[in-house]
Amino acid sequence: MKPSALLLAIATVAGSTLEAEAAITCRNGAQLVSGSYIITPYCQDKLLAQVARQYGSRASFAQIRDNPNIKRHVCRLVGRDIRVFENCITVNPNGRRAY
Fold first, then answer.
1. Average model confidence (pLDDT) across the chain
2. Which of 7, 61, 63, 88 could form a disulfide with 49 if both were Cys (CB 3.0 to 4.6 A apart)?
3. Contact 45/87 with Cβ under 8 angstroms?
4. Is residue 96 one of the residues assigned to a domain?
């Protein structure tokens, strides 16, 4: 293998590793996409986990993302908080009734 081809292969692998490590940036339930913040379910669930921890829940972000029943339970606890109200309507579509 030529040295230039070897360097190109190494650079390609290093570049793909850097892209894979790029994290999703969330702020107040919105995700940074192409320089603008847009509401995404991923970031909304991340915000739900943060708000739930403030209320004393032990549910993690991964649990909320992976298990709709845990998300429903957390929404019963904190669903009236204005920061997560719209996200919790998706799992508890009860209108104005209490959770």
1. 83
2. 61
3. yes
4. no
Flag whether 99 is in a domain.
Answer: no
The domain tally of the chain equals 1
Contacts for 36-44 with beta carbons within 8 Å, 24 or more apart? 41/87, 44/84, 44/86, 44/87
- Please indicate, yes or no, if residue 98 is contained in any of the structural domains: no
Mind listing the pLDDT tens digit for each residue in 10-36?
666 555 544 545 799 999 999 999 999
Identify residue 71 by its one-letter amino acid code: K
pLDDT of residue 22: 77
Domain hosting residue 52, numbered range = 3-89
pTM here is 0.72
Compute the Cα dihedral for 35, 39, 43, 46 and give only its sign: positive
